[in-house]
Every structure is written in structure tokens, then in C-alpha cells.
Amino acid sequence: MSPPLDKRAPSLPPLHTVTLTVNGKETQLKLSPWTSLLDALREYMDLTGTKKGCDHGQCGACTVLLDGKRINSCMTLAIMQEGKQITTIEGLAPTPDELHPLQQAFIDHDAFQCGYCTPGQICSAVGMMNEGRVKTTADIRELMSGNICRCGAYTNIVDAIEEVINKQTA
Amino acid sequence: MTAIGKPISRVDGNEKVTGKAKYAAEFNVPDLTYGYVVSSAIAKGKITNIDASDALSLDGVLKVFTYKNRPKLAWFDISYKDQDAPPGSPFRPLQDETIKYSGQPIALVVAETFEVARYAASLVRIEYKEDTHETDLEANLHRAREPKSGIASLLKPPPPKPRGDFETAYQDASAKTNGRYVHAAEHHNPMELFASTVVYETDSKKKPKLTIYDKTQGVTNSILYVSQVFNIPFKNLRVVSPYMGGGFGAGLRPQYQLFMATMAALELKRSVRVTLTRQQMFTFGHRPATVQNVALGALPDGTMNALYHDAYGETSQFEDYTEVVVNWGGMLYPPENVTMDYKLVPLDVYSPLDMRAPGGVTGMAALEVAMDELAYELGMDPLELRLKNYSDLDNNEKRPYSSKELRECFRQGAERFGWSKRSFEPRSMKKDHNLIGWGMATGIWDSNMLGARAEAALLVNGKLWVSSATAEIGTGTYTIMTQIAADTLGMPIEDVLFKLGDTDFPIAPISGGSWTAATVGSAVQAVCEEVGKSLLKLAKKMPGSPFKSAKWEDIEFVDKHLRLKKDPSAAVSLMTLVNLNGGKAVRETSGVFADVMKQKNFTRSAHAAAFVEVMVDEELGTVKVTRAVSAIAGGRILNPKTARSQILGGMVWGISKALHEESALDHTFGRFMNHSLAEYHVSVNADIHDLDVIFVEEHDDVVNKLGVKGLGEIGIVGMPAAVANAIFHATGKRVRDLPITLDKLL
Ligand code: FES
Ligand code: FES
């Protein structure tokens, strides 16, 4: 809705060859310098498990892990992430036939409805657990608040995460 | 019955948690091109010039579509009418130079990549001649008029005629309340952005053949629209939507990305994807801003004798969107003197669109606050007032409900919540610097059943394949249909595969209005019974068959066997039977409609009682819903796990509506200014605390054979008023203006 930029169009900058390591696999892509990591995953690598809900860092649907840290993949450029270990929902489970404990807990607790925020919620929860800051249920609610679930599955999301944390610390 | 009624985990759960579930923008095909929409910067006027030369000069830009170079399209309005179109003249993207609302799509830039299309779109220069627009509902109430009626009026009846003499009764009442209730527009904002991926191919005669992956609550709706607008025969079209990242009503009409992507694919003879931005998610339907007046009167003992409810809803200049806002009080409560009225105010905005419990949650958010006010005028417990005026009749129609366990909702909900420990006086339940308040409200929603078709096939490998062109919008359709099919033929759910969201499957209505479980569920049950009847025929042909004289009523399906009810040892496996079918699957297709004769003497509704506790910080005015209980009378519960989730979702929506949601219009520009998820607030995880759901037992064989009422809306309806009433109880402040943000409490 913004008015057109009032300047002549510069010609497009050249494409760059970018090497990304996603779910343990290296892939070379030819990308614009301003292609987001999110678009690189979805449109160039067919890894559509990572979702786009806003493209502005406001919803968390695009959350992936960069060297184990959670990040909104719409808010970073693909070209900046060479050499990092990128983990998406497709690469979370130990083997293709297994589920990550959080994935199983989400199913068991019905922690989703439409499923669109779900990959982001699960990656975000993994990242949160890596941060090691969770002491209480209220902490989970607070630290998961960057991931909007419009279906309103929040209480089940918290139950699912809590179960996995409790099992790990037990 | 073994699967129905069990808390089975979603059968599509694995796909959803692994990222394998594919949504409309995720079907990647070779040589895909990308369209990016340019939106109008003004709210009303005309385009005087479009300069796309800069955009077109970029490498990789294929075309910029505007009203000037768009293809010739269908001429008559009727071609643009979808299954949820209100009376009027539907909006046509790229029709001409006229601007009807802010954010109107006015150009589509198509390029080889998304990045280039997006950049090029920013280079399209558009000049306008602006007209003065009107977007302010309150400033235009004097222009209110009767809504036009049309086919939509069938499911959305206008208010009944006044009965009795409201004026006199209200004057005579010993306790009365009179208030004006306002809420702003709201946007559905499902997490998934609206998108269509149109895959272009040609048939043997070189005519275009499209497969369209669309974000929609009904593939049938999309295919009808595309076929009519672009004049393409059905046989060359297929619309597919196996998953939808949230609907809430937003997908009940084909949105403009479908038009744009289809047009571009046909013109460029290429596959095209158009995805809207989050900002553009604010440029089609929304819940209309509404102003309501409610006046209630009661006799000293609390018996209501007078009820007045009017509503002014906004609509666009081109369609009359209506909803049922004011009728509910006349249904629920028994006063003899009732006046209800509903009017529309056309503004320079897009047509509003059904949004979760459309009209119901709007009207009940006012009426149930007014009930609370009346209780306080009477000095009576708010729950006591509801019970005093409890009615087993729909008082508008003067006919009974097919079932109404609302009294039980009140009882069980109040008990779980601890309502009896409530102190009546506002501001009487403090804890540190927090004011505690308890509020409650009633919810009601229609239980409708429409018509649908389904197909079922018992395959030679013993698996059951069932399909219907309905939608999975997060409601659990895959799961409950699998359960229904499994039970009807006595099979484990692992052996049943239910498919949906494809126009190759038998027709089903758009998924909304809480009618999918009833409608498609009945169709699935019926078609599985047809398969069962064919199996019985095969069983009769077996040599020495014990079923020779058996009728349909004499048999049952248990443990993958057909057997005699009287003599379970007379059984034959389904596998054996299907092998008697000459190597073919046993396949049936059939449809169902509501039993109108059986239903016509009853009103069919789901009911709810919502109880809410809030904590309000006295100095900061911040509100926290610390706990809430919803007791639901929703007929038979097919799956308590997914059902509970639907109600939890509704409760979260109710809290969000009461405290956060508001699409704020800047009337200078006629534009929604908070068009992002950072500024359009919805409840996040930290806003939601303890939520409790109770399903009370309710039997109903009038609504449909399955006895289900649908749960998509009933969870939200009572919640906003319960929150508002709890805030009054906590603070003594009666806020009639939603959302209740902290500035209204300071
Ligand atoms: S898509 Fe990245 S935060 Fe919303
Ligand atoms: S499951 Fe639909 S948005 Fe979270």
C-alpha cells in the first residue's frame, strides 16, 4: 500500500552463488542478494515446512534453528547464513521414520488445529529449550509469545512443551 | 461404535508436525512465475495514469496487468457471485479505473521470481483523482437503511416483527437498563497468507487446463467462480486444497489472489503463484464495525418484560453484507414486549465477510452485558437472572428447541468455576494491587445441516477409501470423517483413508457456519451405509449364506466383519465379501439433505455458558483473564480431543475480541492503519491462562442422524460479554466499547 518509490529503477544486482547447509545437507543456489532465508527455503529448496505468515518478523511462523538458536527466517538474508547449520522442521527428527519428542507431544496434546503455525512453534520450542531459561509454566508462555497461533492452541502448546521438558529433566 | 466419541489424535497430525502438509503456496512446479499485487493508496476516486515502464524494464518481469490490458471477462454480475455473496454487485478486480476502497488491488506484476515481482511492484507509478470518501460508521448513522434481501437471507433471517408494546412495558418496568454498545472492525488474520498456485497445462485441443491450489474454505466455490468469470469448462479445471492454514470465514469467498493468478496464467500461458502480503490481508472482508442499542426491563422479581435491541452494521457501497445480530435475545428470553431492528450503513470499504460466529458474537457481546447490567439493577446474581428467565421455547418462533441443555451448562459450569463463592459487589475481591472479577454470559449458535455428497469404496486390499470435496481448516474434518466411516463399517481407523479438498471428489458446501460435521458427516455415514448394503447383497449370494433372509436392520458391522445382530457367530469378513465382487472395489456415491419435515417444528441451536475470572491491575489498567470455564451443549461429541480444541480456540478468540482486536480506520485516508500483526493485536501465548471445557451430555435426533451440532462458533459467542462482565465486577467500570483496552479502565 506504500506509494511507489520516487526514483528510477536501478538495474538488478547480479545473482550470487550461495552455499547453505540445511538439515545437514549442503546445497548451492543462485540467489539475489536480498533473498530472505525463508524464501530460499520455500521457493528454491522446496522446504515448505517453514511457513510465511507475515514476512516482517511479527508472527514466528518462519522460525528455524541456526546453530541451535531460533530465528525468524524472514528476517535474515540467505546470503548471510553460509557456513551455519540450518535446521528446519523437516530435519528435526533423528530419522525420517521417527518424530522428535516435541513433534510427538504436539500430536498427543492436540497442540495445533490448522497446523500452519506448528513448524514454527516446534522449532521455537526447541530453540527455547536450548536457551535453558525455562523455570516455570509462565516462562514457557512468555518465551513462546513470539509465535502466534491464530487457532488458539496455546494451552495445548504449553502442555506439550512442558511434558517434554519434564521428561528431559526427570 | 468404537471410534466415535473417543479422544483420537488427529489423523493428519503427523503431516502437520513434520511440515509435510502442503498449503496453497507450497505446491512447487517447474517454471513457476510469481505475481505481486499493487494496492490502491486512496479510498475513493479514479486512476488517472499508470506508468509501469520502470517495472517492465527490469530483467525477469513478464507483464504488468492493469484494468487497461486485462483480458475480456464475464459481463454479468451473476458470473462473479460466489456461494457466500451477499445481495449486490460483487467486486471485480481490475474492472476499470474506479477505486472503491483503500487497498483495492489495481495491478499485478508478474515476474520470474518473487523477489523481482515484489521489487517491480514498488516501481509501478499510479496517479489518482481523489473523491471524498466516507468510512466513519458513527458519523454516517443517519444514512442507515434497510438491508436488501437475497438468497443469503435464508440462513440469516431479518429480525422478527415487534411484538407486544415495548415502550409501555419498559416504562412500567421496575428495573431497567439502556446502553449503547460499539465495536470496531476486525480482520480474520489466519496465519496462512491467502495464496493461489495456478498450474498451467493444455488439453489435446490446446485449450487451457488448470490445476489450482487455492486457499479456500470450499474448492467448489473456487471452481464455480473461475469457471464463470473466465469461461472455462469444468472438465478443464481442478481446484485442490488439502489443508488450509486457518479460515475463520476469510475463505468463504474466493479472494482476489485467485482471480489474479488465474488471469495471469491464462494470459501468459505459464504457471503462476500469487500470495498476498499480511498488509493485503486487510484489503478484503472483515467483521463489520457495529453500533448497537439495547434496553431491557424487568419486574421486581427479575422476570423480564421488555427487550429492545437494534444494530447498525457497516457494509460496502456495492454489496449488502448482513448478519444476525439482534435476533438472539428474542430467541433466548421470554419477555412479551420486544422490538428488534437491524440496519446497514454503506461506506467506502470492502464488503464485510462472515467471521467466526458472525453476528452472534456481535449481538451477544452487547445483549449479555446488558443482562449483567439488569442483574445489578435488580440486585440479583447474574446467573440467577438467566435461570429466572430461562425458556425452553425459541420465543421468536414460539417453537421448542430440538434440544437445549443450557440449564445443565449453567449448573456444571458454575460448579467447576466455583461461582457460588462469588461476592456480589463490584470491587469486592481484591488481591494485592489487583482487582479480581468474576463474570458470566450465555452463548448460542445455529445448528444447521446443508446438503453434501460423498464417495466410499471398500478396496480389494480391505482398506476403505472415502472422499468429499469439503475442507480441513483446522477443525479436524479429516479425523472425524475417518471416525464416522470407520464406525459405520466396523473398521479400525487405520484402515480408513478420508480425502477432501479436491473438486474431483463429490460436491460439498463451503465449510463454515458450524455445519461441516453435521453435513459432511451425515454424507459420509450415508455413503458408507450404501457400501454396507452392497456388501449385504454380496453376503446373501454366498453358498449357504446365513444372511439369505437378513434385512439391513438385522445386521451390524463389527471388527471388519458383517454379522447377524441376533447371532454374532454368523459372521463374514469384509475382505471375503469384497473378494466376491469380481476383483473390483465395492464403490458407492450418494448424497444427503437435512430432513426438513422432521426439523420444521423445531429451532436447532448449540448453547454455552461462559465463566471468566479477570485480574485487573488497579494502577496500570492491564487486564489478565486468569481462568475461564466454558460449558457447551453441542449435541453429540464425535471426538472430545479435537472438539475441546475447537472450543479452546473459540475461547481464545473471545478473549482476544474482548481485550485486543480492532482494525482501526484512519478516516483521513479511509484506510486501516494497523494492518500488520505487530499492530493488529491478537492474543498470544502469554495472554492465555487456564481454560477449561465441559461438554454436557445432549441427545438430539432432529438436527441430523448423527446428533451433532457443530462446534466452530459456539466457543466464542459468550466469551466477550463474560470478560466484560468480569471486568465490571473487578473494577465497577462498565465498558460497552470493545476491545476493553487499558485506557478505558484508567
Ligand atoms: S513470517 Fe517471519 S515472523 Fe512472520
Ligand atoms: S494451529 Fe492454526 S495457527 Fe496455530
Overview of the molecule:
Chain B: Pfam families: Ald_Xan_dh_C (PF01315), MoCoBD_1 (PF02738), MoCoBD_2 (PF20256). Chain B: This is Xanthine dehydrogenase family protein molybdopterin-binding subunit. The complex is a heterodimer of chains A (170) and B (746). Chain A has helices at residues 37-44, 101-108, 118-131, 137-143, 154-169; strands spanning 16-22, 25-31, 63-66, 69-72, 85-87. Chain A is of the alpha+beta class. Chain A has 2 domains: 16-91, Roll (Ubiquitin-like (UB roll)), CATH 3.10.20; 101-169, [2Fe-2S]-binding domain (DNA polymerase, domain 1, Orthogonal Bundle), CATH 1.10.150. In chain A, strand 1 (16-22) and strand 2 (25-31) form a beta hairpin. The longest helix of chain A has 16 residues, at 154-169. The radius of gyration of chain A is 17 Å and the shape is elongated. The model of chain A has no long low-confidence stretch (mean pLDDT 94). Chain B folds into 3 domains: 32-132 and 194-275, Aldehyde oxidase/xanthine dehydrogenase, a/b hammerhead (Aldehyde Oxidoreductase, domain 3), CATH 3.90.1170.50; 139-184 and 286-394 and 401-448 and 600-745, Aldehyde oxidase/xanthine dehydrogenase, molybdopterin binding domain (Aldehyde Oxidoreductase, domain 4, 2-Layer Sandwich), CATH 3.30.365.10; 449-593, Aldehyde oxidase/xanthine dehydrogenase, molybdopterin binding domain (Aldehyde Oxidoreductase, domain 4, 2-Layer Sandwich), CATH 3.30.365. Chain B has 17 helices and 31 strands. At the A-B interface, helix 1, helix 2, helix 3, helix 4 and helix 5 of A face helix 1, helix 2, helix 3 and helix 15 of B. One FE2/S2 (inorganic) cluster binds next to loops of chain A. One FE2/S2 (inorganic) cluster sits between chains A (112-118, 149-151, 153) and B (191, 246, 474).
